[in-house]
Amino acid sequence: MPEGPSLVLLREATTRFVGRRVLRVEGNSTQDINRMRGRTVRAIRTWGKHFLIQFDGFALRVHLLMFGSHRINERKANSPIRLSLGFSKGEELNLYACSVRFIEGDLDEHYDWSADVMSDVWDPKQARRKLRAQPDTLVADALLDQDLFAGVGNIIKNEVLHRIRVHPESTVGALPPRKLGELVTQAREYSFDFLAWKREFVLKKNWQVHAKKTCPRDGTPLSFRKSLGLAERRAFYCEACQRLYR
Description:
Elements: H1 4-13, E1 24-26, E2 43-47, E3 50-55, E4 58-63, E5 69-72, E6 83-86, E7 92-96, E8 99-104, H2 124-132, H3 139-144, H4 154-163, H5 177-199, E9 223-228, E10 233-237
Antiparallel strand pairs: 1-6, 2-3, 3-4, 4-8, 5-7, 6-7, 9-10
Helix pairs in contact: 1-5, 4-5
């Protein structure tokens, strides 16, 4: 599932369509996608893992789910298109294996932008307040809670917890204040590291524990759980250097 930084890259790549009219619409979505034909794209925004195309009076929300993808000015062979938007000069945005739905009215009424770890208005104090309100939550689940850390996905979760030396089954309420602060800080800082590495096509080379077998800090075998916490997502962690706080 694409995480917040990947959506930022998609947003940057599609800014070329802002201010342009949609001339063609096609796809197998069950939504009334034809309502976008003839409309002008007013803005392209992202919130967490949501890609948002804004028109006058409504917006299209795209969630790429687990296997969604996109193509700009090209098409995937033998893959059904969920949505294709055509523009002048033969340019087009094609979306595959994703969820699309419409949001009516002003996007600011639907989204708390300060919860997005990639946003300029990200509010770490608010994140800490929300965390303190759920002391029994596992830190692994807290990081994946989009109301807390919009944009954080499983890769970021595993890497952040290793970076701050916290076991994924630690509970939020048991974390010392310093560790709670590190959790909030690194959720954002690692996300921007992720973005930089993704731009340079070296993201996987910089993974420390995700999909790895050995801890780079102490050389011990990493623990692997196919599903951990309420989110039931894969977890890679080191029992030696990641402390369990309960």
